[in-house]
Amino acid sequence: MKRPPKLQQKRLLEMLVLAVLLSCSCIALFGFYTHRAFLTSTSPLAPRSTAFYQIQNDHLHHYNRQNLSLNAPQPAATLFPKPPPPPPQTNAVGSVLETGPYHNWELFAADFQEMMQHLKIFVYPDIFNKSSPFANIFLPRENPLDNPKLGNYFSEHMFKGADHFYVCCHSVGREAPSKHHGLRNNAIQLTCCSSYFQRFYLSHKDVGLPQVWPRTDQTALNPPHARHRLVYFAGRVQNSQVRQQLINLWGNDTEFDIFNGSPTFPYEEGFKRSKFCLHVKGYEVNTARVSDAIHYGCIPVIISNYYDLPFSNVLDWSKFSVVINQRDIASLKTKLLSIKREVYLRMYHDLCKVRRHFFWHTTPRGYDSFYMTAYQLWLRRGTLRLSY
């Protein structure tokens, strides 16, 4: 029997309302390895050790960091006020020069502030038994359908690792996730060795992590006129042809402090008294010496091919560092001496501006290494590479 038109309209309206309700109730989970983390549309209870994030209706990952109690979320933490843009630099005739070491400070500051305003982190404890209310998310269980495309975790069903990140600075951290193809191909790797020749490093997806030693404070820098040595480097050869060539060519130069191994004076002193500090590939390429040079106000000289520098999508490294191809080591001194003093002074002042981005605090502060690394994850929030 054919239904009356009014009944058909009523049934269609009910189906439309149901479809809207279902679409509004969808939850996207964003899992982060080391501390398993997920995106959620509501604010659940909050024990500690796993982070939860909130996706807004516009499908962007807006979040704001929170400290949560064991029972319920606390009010959002106080946000950093929006920083004013740096004043434009002018020359003697009043013409505006380039505005420092950032590709686009205004764009970066606005996007960074959006991240600070909308990031929400809900922290949970590690799950060890099935009595936890979150056991269905974190504990593995048998695949009921015996489908190889499904995993043993709910988040693995959804994104095959594309919603995770993990941190590693050495080979052990890279080898373990490399055994899981979905994790290796999809998860974001935060690594201290961001070379294109490094195994398992994917430049379009992974993040170069600044390798920064814990320091109590930002010590005062030696001014440029107090830096009497041209170049400083101290490190083992480590089967590195580049380092061996560097020592053979410049080890006895009177303007260079080049040491195969430890220097004859305190290691930090070389950074403080030199204008340029070399970053030369050894067994691997990492950022320890770059961060040390920036901390002590020494212009980094990067001698390494195909290397992703930390925060390179925000910082214009050409404004406060020198990048030299490995095959040009023989002309190293000529290149450095060709840098005019006014250019060196501008590089030094730009280096002082970016110094705060390479410092870790026990309680993170705006624009330090913690938040700058979080910003790299923010920029990659829409990168999903599903393996099926």
TrEMBL record:
GO terms for molecular function: glycosyltransferase activity. It is a single-pass type II membrane protein. Residues 160-334 form the Exostosin GT47 domain. GO terms for cellular component: Golgi membrane. It is found in: Golgi apparatus membrane. InterPro entries: Exostosin, Exostosin_GT47. Its main location: Golgi. The chain crosses the membrane at residues 12-33. Belongs to the glycosyltransferase 47 family. Pfam families: Exostosin_GT47. It comes from the Eukaryota. This is EXOSTOSIN HEPARAN SULFATE GLYCOSYLTRANSFERASE -RELATED. Keywords: Glycosyltransferase, Golgi apparatus, Membrane, Signal-anchor, Transferase, Transmembrane, Transmembrane helix.
